[in-house]
Design brief:
Chain A: GO terms for molecular function: ATP binding; ATP hydrolysis activity. The complex is a heterodimer of chains A (537) and B (322). Chain A is α/β, with parallel strands linked by helices and 537 residues long. Chain A folds into 2 domains: 3-54 and 62-255, Rossmann fold; 275-504, Rossmann fold, CATH 3.40.50.300. Helix content of chain A is 39%, strand content 25%. A 6-stranded mixed sheet of chain A has the order 6-7-8-3-9-10, with helices on both faces. Chain A has a 6-stranded mixed sheet with strand order 16-17-18-13-19-20, sandwiched between helices. In chain A, α15 packs parallel to α18 (417-430). Chain B has 322 residues and is mainly α. The mean pLDDT of chain B is 84. In chain B, α1 packs antiparallel against α15 (286-313) and α12 packs antiparallel against α15 (286-313). Chain B contains 16 helices and no strands. Classes of the chains: A alpha/beta (537), B mainly alpha (322). Chains A and B meet through α2 and α4 of A and α10 and α11 of B.
């Protein structure tokens, strides 16, 4: 059988300032007709860059420095713009990560869908529109006759992602590049999109390159997996073989976070909880976002709030921090009712609860050196000055496992994502708080880095007895770090209890749905879950 | 999907209300600024030899003895009905005086706009399409060079070349109501060209910047990965999303074509509002100055209002709510 795609010794360089550094280093890639290849790796591994070169496309600021890319026998490196245009959209299609950004906001979906077939002269508009409706139905979009006439902002994220997959199929391409198509979706939405993508690719016999950082997702979608690390291939094997017998240590480490299980901490200490939320309602304008939310955080323990986007978990954190006043209900901290606004809280009280944000990038002032970042709360809350402050900054850096001599003078821009998040943790610790609210602190990080952060948080908790209110949408993280779990949906608490109880079967329908939607490593998982759901009706 | 009322009428009404409010504030500023000018209007108009009696009669005739607030309210009330009062110098109704002049100014502005707006948007698109190329740099730097000169300088250069040396166009643009459209276009070509040169750079650079901003967005990359041609990507995918910033800068420049022509009209002795304004200031004919300023302000506000509304209409999220 002839290869559909053959990449040989491909080198890609990216520009930073005046220098060119290598992004992809001598990678080979083969793809047969109808085969689905998974490309996995952490951010910066070069997987998206590699995927796009299969279309002969390099992003601005990058260039192909050497090697060959042959699509169906045709060389794409150095091919004319006309040759590439002729392939793109017609024989090779692309599905982007964020469908909300990849659809043009000014045009209706179906018009964008028909653009490639009509402009490439594959079929007339009327036929393309009829095909579009058929593909919408195949992607299980609601109301396939009408949905194409909506604008992108009128359609939900999961539907938009399916519409984009349908759009990629418009010219019946031989090869589709999926660039993290479900990463931005909630788990319960992701599972349906995954199933729809898998079926349509199989039914049309298209080959695909499926780019993701999630090994469990790739296990469902791909026949074969290629692991990339810093632009180099680590391992390439059929998916079942790789899962059963990973050859390389790096491949094994990719699902490390799923294995992180800290020692159990035993029952919560007796006495009243540190933080208690009682029957809180809250609204943004006229829209009610929290409805009768109650939960308690014991001293020295971690309470995880899980839910999908829009479930009200971050709003709960805002109410606790005093950034949003509840309309009814009250929040008690160490036995005393909290003033509802942050401005109404004395400094001593502010000091006792700190927050760590999801995006460490934007939570740090890019013009402040680490010394200032950590020195400010020490001065503000503890009144430390001069040598005492300097000594404390160094202690904090040591505590978050960053060498003070190397890091104290740096700017945030000179740190990696994980290091930035560690600095944010140190900044929270500087105030010597009793409660830290962690808002999706590991969501923007790669799995290995995220695991390091979770281990650090766990160690700090054991040493200092701090309580965490841990907000996340990632159930693997919850499994790793929580003592008590609160499941939220549509601004309400659906269920809460000990981690062991929540993760055991038989509870609320929504919790079941949420738990069963988290992809597992088993390549048959998706098929089995869908069959079970169908059987259950 | 439940049918929801589009938020557009409400937004447009709000903008309209703000526009009217601005106009009232501006009219007050115009009125008080003229009040603050030193010296008595009567002595200025009647000259040094005026007797106290003639001054008193003059003040009584034009109501200059009334309290300023009362004069402002009556002035504004009459102006809304199209009556700007009488010229102090010629004693003729200002509306008659201004009618032809305003027409001439708007004619010249429209003439320049019809050339400048399409040309600058096209140049902006071309510059964005061939971003970083020699052509792009040539368009950017030559338009920039032109606005770097004062407009009267540009005007004199054009006169020197096209009127004095080549003799193709007249150097004085003295249009009269009796002229045919063709004659008008011919006679006023040089002032129009001057204004085209002045406003093109701004609009062209804004168009280019708005388009280039969008070119980094994922949906532009998506269109390229669908195999669309470069000009198609820019015209179909980028331009519709750049309408709001482009329209804003076009409106500002159209307003400038009407309000900012004073110098150009003076250089070409073009009988427009700008020249009338300059003459009236020299003669201390304050009611005429006030009327001309009010018309300028209203034009400015109206054009910006239209730009705002088009900007709102170009946003699919507002035009097609969920």
């Amino acid at each position: 059988m002839t290869k559909l795609l053959e990449i040989r010794d491909l080198w890609i360089e990216g520009r930073s300032g005046d220098d060119w550094h290598k992004i992809v280093k001598g990678v080979n890639l083969d793809l047969a007709r109808g085969e689905v290849l998974g490309l996995i790796g952490e951010s910066g591994a070069g997987k998206s860059t590699l995927g796009l070169t299969a279309m002969g496309h390099v992003r601005p600021g990058c260039r192909i420095a050497g090697g060959s890319i042959r699509f169906d026998g045709q060389e794409l490196v150095g091919a004319s713009a006309q040759v590439l245009r002729h392939l793109r959209g017609r024989r090779i299609a692309y599905v982007a990560q964020s469908s909300a950004a990849a659809f043009n906001p000014a045009w209706r979906l179906i018009r964008q869908h028909c653009e490639a077939p009509v402009r490439h002269g594959v079929m007339p508009r009327a036929q393309a529109e009829a095909e579009a409706v058929r593909l919408y139905a195949e992607m299980r979009l609601p109301d396939p006759d009408q949905i194409g006439f909506r604008f992108p902002h009128q359609v939900s994220g999961g539907q938009l992602q399916r519409a984009m997959t349908a759009m990629a199929m418009a010219c019946k391409p031989d090869l589709i590049i999926f660039d993290e198509p479900t990463t931005a979706l909630d788990v319960t939405t992701q599972i349906e999109v995954l199933a729809a993508i898998r079926d349509i690719v199989r039914n049309h016999g298209a080959a695909a390159i499926y780019i993701t950082h999630d090994l469990a997702v790739v296990a469902q979608m791909a026949d074969r997996v290629k692991v990339l690390l810093k632009g180099e291939e680590v391992e390439d094997a059929p998916v079942r073989e790789m899962l059963a017998h990973p050859r390389e240590a790096y491949t094994r480490s990719l699902w490390a976070v799923r294995e992180f299980q800290p020692a159990p901490r035993g029952p919560a200490p007796a006495g009243p909880p540190l933080l208690q939320i009682d029957a809180v309602d809250a609204s943004y304008g006229t829209q009610k976002v929290l409805d009768n939310v109650s939960l308690a955080v014991p001293r020295g323990r971690t309470v995880a709030v899980v839910g999908e986007s829009g479930s009200g978990k971050s709003t709960t954190a805002r109410v606790v921090m005093g950034l949003l006043s509840p309309t009814t209900g009250k929040v008690t901290f160490d036995g005393a009712v909290l003033p509802t606004t942050v401005g109404g809280r004395p400094r001593k009280l502010l000091q006792r609860m700190q927050m760590i944000h999801q995006m460490a990038d934007t939570a740090l002032n890019p013009r402040q050196r680490i010394r200032e970042v950590l020195g400010r709360p020490l001065e503000f809350y503890l009144g430390l000055k001069g040598r005492a402050k300097e000594a404390r900054i160094r202690e904090l850096l040591t505590e978050i496992e960053l060498d003070p001599d190397r890091f104290i003078e740096r700017l945030p821009g000179e740190l990696s994502g994980g290091q930035k998040q560690r600095v944010c943790i140190a900044r929270a610790l500087a105030a010597e708080p009793e409660l830290i609210i962690c808002d999706e602190v590991t969501s923007a990080l790669d799995q290995l880095v995220a695991e390091g952060i979770l281990r650090l948080l766990d160690r700090i908790q054991r040493e200092r007895g701090i309580s965490y209110l841990f907000i996340t949408h990632d159930l693997a993280t919850v499994r790793a770090i929580a003592d008590h779990v609160v499941v939220m949906q549509h601004g309400r608490v659906v269920e809460q209890g000990d981690k062991a109880r929540i993760f055991s079967p038989q509870h609320e329908a929504y919790t079941d749905l949420l738990l069963s939607s988290v992809p597992e490593m088993d390549p048959d998982w998706l098929t089995q879950v869908l069959e079970q759901r169908r059987a259950a009706g | 999907m439940a049918l929801k009322l589009s938020p557009i009428p409400k937004l447009v009404l709000k903008r309209l209300a703000i526009g009217v409010l601005t106009l009232i504030v501006v009219s007050a500023v115009i009125f008080w600024a003229v009040e603050l000018l030193p010296g008595s209007i009567a002595t200025e108009v009647l000259g040094q030899s005026a007797t106290p009696e003639t001054i008193a009669a003059f003040n009584a005739q034009f109501g200059l003895n009334d309290p300023p607030l009362w004069r402002y309210v009556t002035w504004l009330g009459n102006a809304v009905q199209g009556d700007f009062g009488q010229s102090l110098v010629t004693r003729r109704p200002i509306t008659d005086l201004i009618g032809d002049r305003a027409f001439n100014t708007f004619f010249l502005a429209a003439y320049a706009a019809l050339i400048a707006v399409p040309m600058s948007i096209l140049l902006g698109l071309i510059a964005a399409l061939y971003r970083g190329s020699l052509l792009d740099r040539w368009i950017s730097s030559s338009t920039l060079a032109v606005i770097s000169f004062p407009e009267f300088f540009v005007a004199y250069i054009l006169i020197l070349i096209f009127a004095v040396q080549l003799g193709w166009f007249p150097s004085l643009a003295g249009v009269t109501p009796a002229m045919s459209l063709g004659e008008r276009l011919y006679v006023s070509f040089l002032p129009a060209l001057t204004m085209v040169l002045i406003v093109t750079a701004h609009m062209m650079r804004m168009t280019r910047a708005a388009i280039v901003n969008l070119l980094a967005l994922p949906y532009i990359e998506m269109a390229e990965l669908k195999g669309m041609k470069r000009w198609w990507v820019i015209a179909i995918h980028a331009l519709p999303n750049a309408v709001a910033p482009i329209v804003t800068v076009v409106a500002l420049n159209l307003a400038y074509l009407i309000v900012g022509v004073v110098l150009v009209e003076v250089v070409f002795v073009y009988p427009g509002l700008g020249q009338l304004l300059v003459d009236s200031v020299a003669k201390r004919d304050m009611p005429v100055v006030q009327a001309a300023c009010l018309i300028f302000a209203a034009t400015y506000i109206l054009l910006n209002l239209v730009a705002d509304v088009i900007g709102i209409l170009s946003n699919p999220r507002l035009l097609h709510p969920r």
